[in-house]
Amino acid sequence: MDTILEIQNLSKVIKGHFLLKDIQLKIDQPKVYGIVGRNGSGKSVFFKTIAGLLVPTKGTVKVFDDHIGKGKFPKDFGALLDTPGFLGHYSGLRNLKLLSSIQNKVTDEDLKKAISDVGLNPNDTKPVRKYSLGMKQRLGIAQAIMEKPKLLILDEPMNGLDESGVHDVRRMILDFKKQGMTILLASHNSEDISILCDVIYKMDNGKMTLLQDNKPLDHDRVVKSD
Ligand SMILES: Nc1ncnc2c1ncn2[C@@H]1O[C@H](COP(=O)(O)OP(=O)(O)O)[C@@H](O)[C@H]1O
Ligand SMILES: [Mg+2]
Questions:
Q1: DSSP string, 97-142
Q2: CA-CA to 107 of 20 to 30 Å: which in 9, 16, 32, 40?
Q3: Mean per-residue pLDDT, 97-119
């Protein structure tokens, strides 16, 4: 199978601090990969480096065989990062239209479907500044999936969601997996990670280690309360 993500000897140093330390990772199977780790351990820095928003100090990041960094962003890739930047005075749909006009790969129908897939109303004209935190988070996920990426990064997607929102997002993640997406998920909630992830890594002070591989998943726990 083709390599989805390949990271070799990746370090990120800012102002003399090692935020990432010599990370190695090779992913060639579409599964859900989880990263656990306390606040400040480097999960978001790691994801931003994969997204091409931070350039490695040392080492390489390859997504589908393209080298990422220095102005090169991954293809077939979507991400919910910790700072979804929407324009507050526009509707959700208008925001996604603007963001998707960069790649110009998807139709309005695709955008509407992405918005309804995350449980929002695509015809809602309310400006995003009036959205609750949970609605913004859902729109962030819609933005991440709108171009039907093969590799999806979700950085703390449950942030700001109530119990039913968490439940919806868990189901979404399992649906995306069924559609063949590879998903990298960071969460400080160990229950989310244990229910959703086939493979689990731990980030500790910028060092990443494998915690568990090919874990049997108890998907029933996600759908039980339907
Ligand atoms: N742009 C940046 N410049 C300098 N330090 C940063 C930057 N972004 C994050 N950091 C630092 O890197 C460390 C890891 O942060 P982060 O990846 O956000 O942690 P996590 O997502 O695991 O909570 C923290 O000490 C944070 O303060
Ligand atoms: Mg983070």
A1: HHHHTTT----HHHHHHHHHHTT--TT----GGGS-HHHHHHHHHH
A2: 32
A3: 92
Ligand 1 in contact with 19 (CB < 6 A)? Answer: yes
Dump pLDDT digits (tens) for 15-33.
999 999 999 999 999 999 9
**Better-predicted residue by pLDDT, 190 or 204:** 204
Q: How many CB atoms lie within 10 A of CB 104?
A: 7
pLDDT of residue 226: 46
Residue 83, pLDDT score: 67
- Confidence band of 162 (pLDDT split at 50, 70, 90): confident
Type and span of the H or E element at 222: helix 220-223
Q: Of ligand 1's atoms, which has the minimum distance to the CA of residue 40?
A: 19
CA of 45 relative to ligand 1 center, distance in Å: 6
12 in ligand 1 pocket by Cβ < 6 Å? no
Residue type (1 letter), 182: T
CA-to-CA distance for 39 and 34, rounded, in angstroms? Answer: 15
CA 123 to each of CA 15, 99, 104, 120, 166: distance values in angstroms, whole numbers, following the listed order: 46, 17, 21, 9, 23
Residue at token pair 């969601």 = 161
**Verdict on whether the full-model pTM lies above 0.85:** yes
Query: Which domains are assigned to the chain?
Result: 1-76+149-226 (3.40.50.300), 86-148 (no CATH)
